[in-house]
Specification:
By secondary structure, this protein is an alpha/beta fold. It has helices at residues 2-20, 25-50, 55-65, 98-108, 118-123, 127-135, 155-159, 162-176, 204-212, 237-249, 271-285; strands at residues 84-93, 112-116, 141-145, 182-183, 191-193, 196-198, 216-217, 222-223, 258-264, 290-292. The chain has eleven helices and ten strands. It binds zinc ion (ZN). Residues 91-92, 146, 150, 186 line the site of zinc ion.
Length: 303
């Protein structure tokens, strides 16, 4: 700024001096223009220097902290034909147990998918934070749609009214802010992928409606069953691991070398049952050919 003032004062002084000496106006104008350009450049340089060099990085760190940072471009998924893919899925969250599933999978460094219910998000005190935490943890965890209200457990009525059911899923998509078009039907293991569909007669109309809107529907191959009275797992981790090995060896999976495992968040709310989840994951990890993935990478899934 001080350089700029120097230029201006020297220009005025030069102008007065040259005028006294009888120089022509064009020469004076040329000198004035030169002074102006120098001043302008100095202002630009000063603006750059005065900018806080930490501003951008501090802003980026803040956005990352609140989970609002722009996401890095998604890396293309490449299938390794020597591997067997395991898609561990947790249904009906957010519920007591969701945080345990999240922490265990994070601790074990594996990917998993959470099919969530919008009404459970509304009813749980910290529901929105839990759903947001899952949503922001992609690509390790994938948030997916499991309807707005889980049909209120009236499955027949729900699927017999396909437009109403479709609206229910769209409401959940909006309420949960689900990032991808991936759905699991409540109480039903139907499949809808690119150019293929496998469903029961009951859900067929809803499945077609979702398909025409570009949605995938993901069923499952193996279920970790639970006692409906206390939500505790029925199979031991060893038994479930043996079931997965057996299903692969007998080619019982819907898509070769891809195994979707259904479980529910609430099965792992107790510490002893959380330990079973840890054990199951560790058993699977012992096989170097097994890879945990999220269901958006299931073969044939529409983008
Ligand atoms: Zn469910």
């Amino acid at each position: 700024m001080s350089i700029c003032l120097l230029y201006l004062s020297s220009t005025i002084f030069t102008y007065m001096y040259l005028r006294q000496r009888g120089f022509r106006l064009i020469v004076i104008v040329f000198l004035g223009f030169f002074g102006f350009m120098s001043c302008n450049n100095t202002l630009k340089e000063n603006t750059f220097i005065e900018k806080d060099p930490m501003a951008d990085s501090a802003k980026k760190a803040y956005l990352e902290k609140i989970g609002a940072a722009p996401k890095a471009p998604e890396q293309p998924f490449v299938v390794d034909s020597t591997k067997f893919y395991i898609y561990l899925t947790f249904d009906d969250g957010p519920q007591p147990g969701t945080i345990n599933c999240y922490n265990i999978c994070k601790g074990e460094g594996i990917k998993a998918t959470f099919f969530m219910v919008a009404l459970h998000q509304q009813r749980k005190r910290d529901g929105k934070q839990i759903v947001g935490m899952i949503r922001n943890s992609y690509p390790q965890f994938l948030l997916a749609n499991h309807s707005f209200d889980h049909t209120m457990e009236h499955y027949q009525y729900f699927y017999q009214h396909p437009e109403m059911a479709f609206d229910n899923f769209m409401r959940a998509q909006d309420s949960l802010q689900v990032p991808k078009k991936i759905i699991r039907l409540p109480g039903n293991g139907g499949w809808v992928l690119q150019n293929q569909m496998k469903t029961s007669h009951l859900v067929s109309a809803v499945a077609h409606r979702l398909d025409s809107a570009g949605y995938n529907v993901i069923g499952w191959d193996v279920e970790w069953n639970f006692n409906h009275k206390n939500a505790r797992p029925i199979q031991t981790p060893e038994k479930l691991a043996a079931q997965v090995d057996s299903a692969f060896s007998k080619h019982h999976e819907y898509m070769t070398k891809n195994m979707v495992i259904l479980s529910h968040d609430r099965m792992f709310k107790r510490s002893e049952d959380s330990a079973s989840l840890v054990k199951f994951i560790q058993l699977m990890k012992q096989n170097p050919k097994y890879v945990f993935e999220t269901v958006d990478h299931y073969p044939g899934a529409k983008k």
